[in-house]
Amino acid sequence: MAQSQYSVVTYKGESDDFVHRSFETKVRKEAKETAKKWVKEYPEERIYIEWFRGSDGQKGYVNPDGYSLTGTNWGAESNE
Description:
Blueprint: E1 4-12, E2 19-25, H1 28-41, E3 45-53, E4 58-63, E5 66-68
Antiparallel strand pairs: 1-2, 1-3, 3-4, 4-5
């Protein structure tokens, strides 16, 4: 079974595409816990979990409601 790589990334402001901080792991649960922690620590930042599976090049996002090709900000009010 191919192992995925998860990256928790944050962006400042609504229009900034520069990654402010990031955390890499191969454990989805650890990525989700980090995202939830950062929502509380950095409420002004947009927080996403990106994932990549090297065996076939599949990539996307882990959102609070599951996997998707489009990312959802973990810090959005509807996700808290």
